[in-house]
Amino acid sequence: MTARDSTDDPVFRALADPTRRALLDALFERDGQSVQALCAQVPEMTRFGVMKHLAILEEANLVIAHRDGRSKLHFLNPVPIQQLADRWIGKYARPFTRALTGLQQQLEGDTSQETA
Q: Do the domain assignments include residue 22?
């Protein structure tokens, strides 16, 4: 296991849970929400449960919290998700996208020769 892989672990762990993904979706829709507002997104869960999920998201650097007076606002940080996409999804998709691009170029080349 490389050092890079171990830094990805908290992000994968955070994204593995549907409740945490729902909280991220809520922050994507409206950034800078309080715990109370986020609790409304998952009414079946206690405030303590939501706070535990937020702590895991903060540990993974997917959520950044800032104090605003007496309240604590939570903001989405999409950078770790993009880093995962670049590192994991990108490298596996690259051969397929290259093949599709090559196929497209071949088909377009054949079409231009037929019309000439």
A: yes
Residue 51, domain member (yes or no): yes
> Maximum Cα–Cα distance for the chain, whole Å?
72
- Domain CATH number, residue 36: 1.10.10.10
| Residue 96 falls inside a structural domain | no
> What are the φ and ψ backbone dihedral angles of 96, each rounded to 5 degrees?
-70, -40
Query: pLDDT tens track of the chain, all 116 residues?
Result: 455 557 789 999 999 999 999 999 999 999 999 999 999 999 999 999 999 999 999 999 999 999 988 889 999 999 999 998 888 877 777 777 778 888 888 898 865 555 55
- DSSP code per residue over 48-86: HHHHHHHHHHHHTTSEEEEEETTEEEEEE--HHHHHHII
Range(s) of the domain holding residue 65? 3-77
Rounded-to-integer distance, Cα 4 and Cα 77, Å: 19
**Model pLDDT, residue 79:** 95
Say how many domains are in the chain.
1
